[in-house]
Every structure is written in C-alpha cells, then in structure tokens.
C-alpha cells in the first residue's frame, strides 16, 4: 500500500508538471509576441461601435492588469497564477463584463457529455470487435467489420465529418446537422428536450465513434493474437475449456490492461477531436466557444479556455493512471 | 534497403498497395512542376466550368483550373508533412536515444518533459498560436510549432529500444574501447532504431497533414498558399457544394483520401515488418 501511495504521489508530481508547463507555455506565447493584445482588443471593440471613453479606459485598465502591462513580466506571470488558482480568469471581452469562468461553465457540460459518452462507446466497441477479430481469425464478417473501421482511420477528421453532413444533411435529411438542441426549444427540463438533445448529439457522436474505434480495434486485435500463443491459452484449449470462456476470462481480461493505459493517453487526442467536432456540427460546447472567441478577438476567453483544457486533460490522465494499478495488480507500481 | 523494399513488396499486399498509391501522389507532384498556370493567380479562366477535355477537373469559382491547382496544393501539403516529420524525428531521436542510454536523472527529466508534451491538448494550443501570430503565421512557423508538438510519443518508443540496446554486449564493448557517448549513439544505436523511425515518419505525416487540413479549412493558417486544406477552405467560402460545383470539393477530398491511405498502408506494413512475431505469422499462413 505504501508503494501505491508513493506511485500516486509521483504521478501527482507529473500532473503538476504538466499543468505548470502547459500554463507557462500559454502565458509566454501570449506575452512574448510583438502584438499588443490590449490595443488590439480595444481596437476590435471600438470598431464594433463601443465608444464610451470611460468604458474603454476601464477596459484598458483591466486588460493591462490581465496581460501584464503592469510590473515586470515575472510579476505578471506570478499574478496570472494567483488569478488562475482562485478561478478568476477576468472579464470576457466579447461579452463584457461577464466573467470568463461563467461563459466557460455554460458550455462545459455539453463537451463533457458528448466526450464521455462517445469515448466510452468507442472504447467498448473497438475492444469488443478487436478481441473477437483477434480470436476468431477466420470469421469473414469480423474481418469485414474490422476492415471498415481500419479504413476510416487514416481519413482526416474534418473530411469524414463533412461526408456525414452531406449524407445526413442533404441526401437523406433525417437528423439535425447543427446545434445542440432545437433553435426555439423550451429549455425547461422535459422528456421532449432530452430527446431533442439526444437527437442532436447523434451525428457528432457518430463521427467521433467512426474515427476512434479503429485504433482500439487494431491494438486489441494485436494484443489478443499475441496472447493466443501463450502457454496458458494453448493449455486451456487442449484441456477443453469452452472457447467463449477462454476468450472472456483468459484472453480479454489480460489484454484489457494496456488498453486502459491507452485510454489515459488518448484523452488528450479526444479533446482535440471534440473541438473539431463541435466546430463542424455547431455543437454548443467549449470547442465552438474557442472558435467564436478567436473570431471575436476575445483574448481572456481564449487564454482561459487554453488553460482549462490543459488542466482538464492533465487531470483526466492523472485519474486514469492512478486507477490502472487497482484494475490490474500486474502493473508495476514503480 | 533495396532488398527490404523488394521483400516487403513481394510478401505484403498492404505495402504494395501503399507504394502504388504513393507513386500516384509522387506522379501528381512531378506533374505540378509543369503547371501552365500559377496556382496563386485568380480569375485566369472562365469560372465554374464542369470537368471536360480542356479543364480535366473543371474550374473553380475563382477562375482557377482545379487539376493544376490540386497538383501544386498537394506538393505544398506533402512538403509540409515531410518538413514536420523531419524536424520532429530529429527531436525524438535525440531525446529517445539520450534518455534511454543515459538513464538516471537525465532520463527522468527528459521523460517528464516528454510525458507533459504528450498530454497537452494540441488543437487549442495551435489555435492559440494562430490567435497570437495572425499574419505572421507563415508555413515555416507552423512547421516549427507542429514539429515541437509531435515528437513525444515516438521518443518514448525509441527510448524503449535504446534501453534494451544498452544492455547488449556490443554497447559494453564500445564503452570499454573508449567510444564517446555521442559516437555510440550515432554509430552503434542509431542503425537499430532507424526502421522504427521510418514507420513513425508515416504516422507523423498523417497527423501533421490532418492537422494542417483541419486548421486550413477553418481558416487558421496562411490562406494564400495553396494546400489541400486551403482548396477546401475556398470551396467552402464560395459554398461550392450548395451551388453545385461539386468537383471543386470532390477533387481535393479524393486526393486526400488517396494520400492518407498510402501513408497509412505504408506505416502499417512497416510496423508489421518491425515486429518479428507478426512477420512470422504472415509467413506461416
């Protein structure tokens, strides 16, 4: 147990390092550029028609505070961390003076919901088909299904989503292709609303599943076909243990362990995938928010979203990593 | 090297298919040097012409020939991918070999950085870079940024091989014969990891070109240089699909799929070649 505690502490140190590096990169990328973000933002706002000099001076001051025009760059860096620690990311520029954290919290549930559900489906589907295809090597149906998923793998995500949009948006328009719910929907919790939200999530989720399943499938299939040749599996087959039982308890269980570790690693990539999905399908999550913020030149919102995504992904990887020794005792706790 | 390619082409259908598809890509790139029009000039030709004998793949709403623009765009995209792959391979080789050979504190520090880069979400970061650089976001800058994000996974792979190489007797012998660490890594260990480097190059190109296309389609790159993503960006900007100019979108999409299929098949078959167990499996069946 003490060795597990040391392991958790070490992983926690890693987690802190990731957050530290990520936030530091974010900070210095935004601060070491020749462009003055404050005047850029002020310019963007005055162009949009906001011209009350008092409001602009107020904005300029709060922006200076935000982007370290006050004090040395190290002082600003320190201040940035302090604000981040208290969850204060400053006011949004495009929706002044709503705090950035409020805007992000509004979009976050959509992303987390879509991401969790489609990741779990992808993980289960890919591993199930992969295990079966690795064990029943001669089965033509399994071969065909695997081939389809593997063929989808190399296609860039945007292209695949585009094809889905054309098929379900124009050729056979049965599913909503944009947004997270019906435009004029009544947002009180009701059965109809849940159904509507589900319907809107089908295409984004489907595209994520189509892209993600193949890599799990390939990994699992390779793991299973390696385990098949192990002595204990050959022995069980000679001893007449039912095939189903061999696959379930002898092979799949052992092959799952590296897959769980892989789940942690893929979370970062899934985050990327979700951002693009949301843009293509107009899903109201943080990916869409990020693009809107970029187009609106909303500096504090972009900064806040980048910091949040780094902390979020690092935390997810940390949690899955410290859980994996509990799932399988064979994982060496160094 | 040549015998490896010949053996692979003979025994491995995937490799052969990948090689043929890649030959198509290379052919198109060679052709691009004979383009009669400059790919950046607009309103040269009658717009919106469907594919026929004169304009093989039709023309765009901006008065460009789709076929010739496609070949130049493909060349730029592929060179972009090769550039990212080349620089990030150097980083991953240095980090992987040094971490594996040196061990101890050096290894721990390098791997801590490595793992951090591995989990940092790249897409928001790339958008952040565009947001800050805006017009200074040139292709060279993007290549450097992508290369510094894309080496970590392969560095881990190389490190794991380097650790096992370190325990082999030839390494010990080199140490006792007074070779420097740099010499051991370059002359003794590098040849062993090169096959892995080739396989990861393909994966890295798939990743970087996929990112390029996504970023470009959204308009988050230098939109004046023709690339595969750029073609789709302009087609979208002119709502080509809605106004029925399907060839403007279909041509780049088809070529992208061919390019990715080629890279993917090559990487898959090379991975298999690197893993002796699956190579034996194939020979047995």
Automatic annotation (TrEMBL), chain A:
Gene Ontology terms describing biological process: transmembrane transport
- Family label: Belongs to the binding-protein-dependent transport system permease family.
**Where in the cell?**
Cell membrane
InterPro entries cross-referenced by the UniProt entry: MetI-like, MetI-like_sf
Primary location group: membrane
What's the name of the protein? Answer: ABC transporter permease
**What UniProt keywords apply to this chain's record, in alphabetical order?**
Cell membrane, Membrane, Plasmid, Transmembrane, Transmembrane helix, Transport
- Annotated membrane-spanning segments are 12-32, 110-135, 147-171, 191-218, 260-281, 301-323
Protein's UniProt keywords contain Nuclease: no
Per the record, membrane topology reads: Multi-pass membrane protein
Q: Which GO terms describe its cellular component?
A: plasma membrane
Which organism is the protein's source? Answer: Rhizobium leguminosarum
Q: Which PANTHER family match?
A: INNER MEMBRANE ABC TRANSPORTER, OLIGOPEPTIDE ABC TRANSPORTER, PERMEASE PROTEIN
TrEMBL record, chain B:
Q: Which SUPFAM superfamilies match?
A: MetI-like (SSF161098)
Where does the ABC transmembrane type-1 domain start and stop, copy by copy?
A: 74-267
Which CDD domains did the record assign?
A: TM_PBP2
Where does this protein reside within or beyond the cell?
Cell membrane
Q: Name one GO biological process term.
A: transmembrane transport
The organism's place on the tree of life at top rank:
Bacteria
- Keyword entries, A-Z: Membrane, Plasmid, Transmembrane, Transmembrane helix, Transport
Q: How does it sit in the membrane?
A: Multi-pass membrane protein
Signal sequence region? none
Q: Name one GO cellular component term.
A: plasma membrane
Main localization, broad class: membrane
TM stretches of this protein? 12-34, 78-102, 109-133, 139-158, 189-210, 245-266
**Protein family membership:** Belongs to the binding-protein-dependent transport system permease family.
Its name, as the record gives it, is Peptide ABC transporter
């Amino acid at each position: 147990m003490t060795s597990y505690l040391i392991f958790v502490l070490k992983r926690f140190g890693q987690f802190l390092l990731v957050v530290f590096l990520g936030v530091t990169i974010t900070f210095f990328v935004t601060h070491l550029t020749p462009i003055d973000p404050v005047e850029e933002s002020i310019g963007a706002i005055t162009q949009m028609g906001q011209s009350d000099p008092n409001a602009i001076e107020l904005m300029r001051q709060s922006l200076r505070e935000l982007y370290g025009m006050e004090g040395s760059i190290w002082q600003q860096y320190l201040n940035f961390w302090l604000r981040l620690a208290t969850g204060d990311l400053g006011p949004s520029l495009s929706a002044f003076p709503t705090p950035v954290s409020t805007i992000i919290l509004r979009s976050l549930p959509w992303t987390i919901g879509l991401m969790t559900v489609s990741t779990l489906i992808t993980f289960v589907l890919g591993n199930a088909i992969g295990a079966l295809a690795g064990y029943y090597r001669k089965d033509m149906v399994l071969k065909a299904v695997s081939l389809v998923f593997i063929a989808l793998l190399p296609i860039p995500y945007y292209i695949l989503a585009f094809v889905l949009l054309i098929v379900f948006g124009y050729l056979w328009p049965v599913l909503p292709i944009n947004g997270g719910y019906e435009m004029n929907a009544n947002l009180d919790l009701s059965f109809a609303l849940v159904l509507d939200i589900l319907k809107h999530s089908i295409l984004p989720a489907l595209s994520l599943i189509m892209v993600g399943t193949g890599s799990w499938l390939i990994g699992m299939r390779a793991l299973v076909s390696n385990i098949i040749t192990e002595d204990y599996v050959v022995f069980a087959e000679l001893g007449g243990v039912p095939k189903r039982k061999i696959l379930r308890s002898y092979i799949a269980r052992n092959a799952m362990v590296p897959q769980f570790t892989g789940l942690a690693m893929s979370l970062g990539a899934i985050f990327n995938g979700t951002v693009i999905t949301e843009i293509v399908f107009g899903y109201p999550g943080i990916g869409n928010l990020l693009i809107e913020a970029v187009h609106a030149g909303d500096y504090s919102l972009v900064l806040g979203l980048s910091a949040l995504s780094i902390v979020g992904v690092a935390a997810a990887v940390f949690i899955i990593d410290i859980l994996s020794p509990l799932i399988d005792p064979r994982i060496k706790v160094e | 090297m040549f015998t490896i390619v010949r053996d692979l082409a003979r025994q491995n259908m995937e490799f052969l298919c990948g090689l043929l598809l890649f030959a198509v890509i290379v052919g198109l790139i060679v052709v691009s040097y004979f383009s009669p029009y400059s790919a950046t000039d607009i309103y040269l030709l009658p717009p919106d012409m469907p594919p026929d004998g004169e304009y093989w793949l039709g023309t765009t709403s901006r008065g460009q020939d789709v076929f010739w623009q496609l070949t130049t765009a493909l060349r730029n995209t592929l060179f972009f991918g090769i550039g990212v792959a080349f620089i990030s391979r150097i980083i991953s080789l240095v980090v992987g070999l040094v971490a594996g050979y040196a061990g101890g504190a050096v290894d721990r520090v390098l791997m801590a950085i490595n793992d951090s880069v591995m989990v940092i979400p790249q897409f928001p970061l790339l958008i952040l870079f565009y947001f800050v650089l805006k017009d200074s976001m040139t292709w060279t800058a993007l290549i450097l940024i992508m290369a510094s994000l894309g080496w970590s996974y392969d560095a881990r792979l190389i490190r794991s091989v380097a650790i096992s190489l370190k325990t082999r007797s030839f390494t010990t012998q080199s140490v006792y014969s007074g070779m420097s660490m740099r010499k051991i890594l370059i002359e003794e260990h590098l040849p062993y990891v090169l096959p892995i480097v080739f396989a990861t190059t393909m994966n890295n190109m798939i990743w970087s070109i996929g990112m390029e296309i996504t970023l470009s389609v959204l308009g988050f790159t230098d939109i004046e240089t023709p690339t595969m993503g750029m073609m789709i960006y302009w087609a979208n900007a002119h709502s080509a699909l809605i106004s029925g100019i399907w060839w403007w979108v279909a041509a780049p999409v088809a070529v992208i799929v061919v390019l990715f299929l080629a890279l993917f098949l090559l990487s898959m078959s090379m991975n298999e070649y690197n893993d002796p167990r699956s190579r034996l499996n194939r020979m047995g069946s």
